[in-house]
Amino acid sequence: MISTLDHSDLQRVLDREHRSARAQREQRQARRQADDARGVTASRPRSFREANYYQHAYLSIGPAQGALLYFLARASGARRLVEFGSSFGISTLYLAAAAADNDGIVIGSEFYANKRDHALANLRDAGLAARAEIRLGDATETLVDIEGPVDFVFLDGEKSLYRPVLESLENRLAEGAWVVADNLDHLAGEPGDFRHFILNQRERYTTRLMPVGKGMFSISQWCGGDKRVDTA
Fold first, then answer.
1. Which of 60, 81, 134, 167 is at a distance of 20 to 30 A from 92, taking alpha carbons?
2. pLDDT (tens digit, 0 to 9) for every residue of the chain, 232 residues total?
3. How far is CA 169 from CA 19, 40, 58, 83, 107, in A?
4. pTM of the model
């Protein structure tokens, strides 16, 4: 059986989107270097809900992370996948490929309409539109009515929302469900952040941190259980 990840239409779209993300990243880096040379300190946006930066930035996973994401979802046999932070749809394409091979579906959430439209167009171009749904709006509201069991969760949106989004899904997680979160290297592991939280939920999750590409995943498996470690 040929993996959906190897289909030419999907590879063409992934190559195009990864190139666009890389070009944007290089442009931003060049602007930062120019600002540094002039002694200009650029202000960083504080809220994804207000910042034009986030509305147009890829902030996407790379090919190595996408391949790992696909194989984790594919190998686990996940049929109902949930994604927080679809953005322009690069990660969604990898998840939808796994969903296609497992005869399942991925349900994503994206705050910005332009990003959702772009992601849906990518899915259509790759021939995977039937394997994905992307809900528009705040994930703490758009993902609350997903039917279970949920077999796989990918968290790649606003870091402060990782915990509330995950906890809103816990009563629908299948036994042994996988939860993958990106950008754990952005968090210090201090009380109150998601890195500290997920590593201290041993009664509920088995978790390991894994450097992939230039970032870091936390890869967790849901153990269930009623005990909760308070790490607020």
1. 167
2. 679 999 999 999 999 999 999 998 888 778 777 766 777 666 666 666 666 778 888 888 999 999 999 999 999 999 999 999 999 999 999 999 999 999 999 999 999 999 999 999 999 999 999 999 999 999 999 999 999 999 999 999 999 999 999 999 999 999 999 999 999 999 999 999 999 999 999 999 999 999 998 889 999 999 975 544 444 4
3. 33, 43, 26, 11, 12
4. 0.90
